[in-house]
Amino acid sequence: MITKTPQVSVIALGANLRFDQNTPDVTLRQAIRCLTERGLVITAQSRFYATPCFPPGAGPDYVNAAIAISGDLPEVEILAILHEVEAEFGRKREQRWGMRTLDLDLICHGERVLPDLEKYESWRRLPPDRQLEMAPDELILPHPRMQDRAFVLVPMADVAPDWLHPVLGKTVRQMLAELPDDTVAEVKPLAP
Fold first, then answer.
1. Are 176 and 157 in contact (CB under 8 A)?
2. CA 53 from chain center: how many Å?
3. Domains, the chain, ordered by start
4. Widest distance between CA atoms in the chain
5. SS3 for 191?
6. Which ranges carry the 7,8-dihydro-6-hydroxymethylpterin-pyrophosphokinase domain (predicted)?
């Protein structure tokens, strides 16, 4: 009998605004609890990190983290759960890369490349000025800019350091090692 290996996915969490008088780190803890209450099976959780706001000057610094989940939920169902929880914590989708009470991003879903390799590559290669103006109207996996962002890779290295990017052919550790040292150093663990 063949047993199916559960799908491993990584969700990045971030917040830089208070919600209901709670600091961003408290919001992230509460959001993780809400995700488990909605049936997501968390297999690993990163430390919490203080990270500079992206893009620079767009608001207060962030608290970022990552969780790994397992199971066989389709990515669209995971995304729907993430959007429900974001809304519960006051997330409004008004400005791309703006300040947020809660941001939950599905970074990867196993080895899936969505919607297809050609569209994935067009989003991955989008110039930075166009990234600010454009948002995809469908789920793009893996996240097309994860390899460029220390605030994603540092927490992800805590939960899935050996996950292999299905397009780039690099692990999280390898992608992190390719980032400039000063960029990685900006992502600082919060005191427990």
1. yes
2. 15
3. 7-189 (3.30.70.560)
4. 56
5. coil
6. 10-161
